[in-house]
Design a protein that fits this description.
Blueprint lengths: L1 H15 L9 E4 L2 E5 L4 E12 L2 E11 L7 E12 L6 E11 L4 E12 L2 E11 L4 E5 L5 E3 L6
């Protein structure tokens, strides 16, 4: 039973990172892991860092909701930061909370959202990203703000 849950959680994390589980191993570093079988949740807390290939997620807490028959959603809270790549080509998304729903392929990042790549920055209150369709939209409290550099990658 525990091995099955571990596999399901690995699948859940891979869905969060939007990469097939067979593409690269997933490493998780956290101060604590709590599994609640009655609630079907697995919670990593305390300086959580999740890595897969060139993608890194950091947050204070990451909760996987393991619904019967599949994964319901993954919620990361507390200084959420998602980084893909490194150096000047790194892409970074930050916010207060991220919720990913694997069945729909939808990621929602909320609360002081910032997207950066090189010298380019977008800021708003909410980012909706459809991983499957490759479409995104950002909204702000009144406006979405951007700073763009002509020579940034």
């Amino acid at each position: 039973m525990m091995k099955d849950r571990a596999m399901r959680y690995a699948l859940l994390l891979s869905a969060l990172l939007a990469m097939p589980v067979w593409a690269a191993p997933i490493t998780v570093d956290a101060a604590r892991l709590d599994v609640d079988r009655a609630a079907n949740t697995a919670t990593f807390s305390g300086g959580v860092t999740i890595k897969q290939a060139d993608l890194t997620l950091t947050a204070a807490r990451v909760v996987g909701d393991l619904a019967a028959g599949g994964l319901r959603d993954i919620t990361a809270t507390g200084n959420v930061k998602i980084v893909r790549g490194s150096g000047e080509n790194a892409e970074t998304a930050t916010g207060d909370k991220a919720v990913y729903t694997p069945t729909s392929g939808k990621l929602v990042l909320t609360g002081d959202v910032s997207l950066t790549r090189g010298g380019n920055t977008l800021r708003g209150n909410r980012l909706d990203y459809d991983v499957k369709a490759g479409k995104a939209s950002m909204t702000g409290a009144g406006s979405v703000r951007g700073t763009f550099s002509g020579d940034a990658p």
